[in-house]
Amino acid sequence: MEYIAHDLLQLKEEAKLISYTPIPEWVEHSLAKAPFVVVRRAVHRDSLIPVGVRGERRNQRFGAFVSEQAVKQRIRPEDLVSIFQNGHFRNMPAIGALKEVAIILKDFAWGPTGSVGFEFASGAEVIITTSDLDILIRLSSYLSVEQAQLIVNQLKECPVSVDVQVETEKGAFSLVEYARGEKTLLLRTVYGPSLVKLNQLV
Q1: What is the model's pTM?
Q2: Which pLDDT score is estimated for 161?
Q3: Same domain for 62 and 86
Q4: Active-site residues: which are they?
Q5: Which domain holds residue 28?
Q6: Distance from C-alpha of 172 to C-alpha of 113, rounded to nearest angstrom
Q7: 187 and 91 share a domain?
Q8: Three-state SS across 85-125?
Q9: How many CB atoms lie under 10 A from the CB of residue 3?
């Protein structure tokens, strides 16, 4: 199975994190409450999956690795859309904004990431009233700059700030940056960020 950045992985009870640096105490506490990690955008080495653990505070983020055998379930951002549409969730601004986002992005494969995605997948209440809404669009065909501009303008009407990352086979980029139509764009890849020309994304 291919594990891609922003996928959420539910870990088995006996799963062990693999880290080349000391593991902070809060990591074990967080995984005990919600045994979920997010796949990081990094090179997979020795059949290990690069993952990130989130803590209760914004500055509590820890990068490590897990083996495929440690994974109980993989949840993609796109899988969370149907969970949202068929479930009942807390009355939070970021969650409420999803209804508008679903209409705007109805022609795309998309899903929530960040705190909203994590709460939907794990059930842990991590969204706060000031949480932004992070969205991933999985692009399978050409997206024009004009289309991107239209989406960006529509998303500005949402009640919270919506940050959209566009995922392609070559890497990911910010929808807002792409919509500016500049000649070069920052592309996030497993080897790190790099500047590419717009026509290289087509």
Answers
A1: 0.90
A2: 95
A3: no
A4: 132, 134
A5: 7-75
A6: 14
A7: yes
A8: HHCCCCCCHHHHHHHHHHHHCCCCEEEECHHHHHHHHHCCC
A9: 17
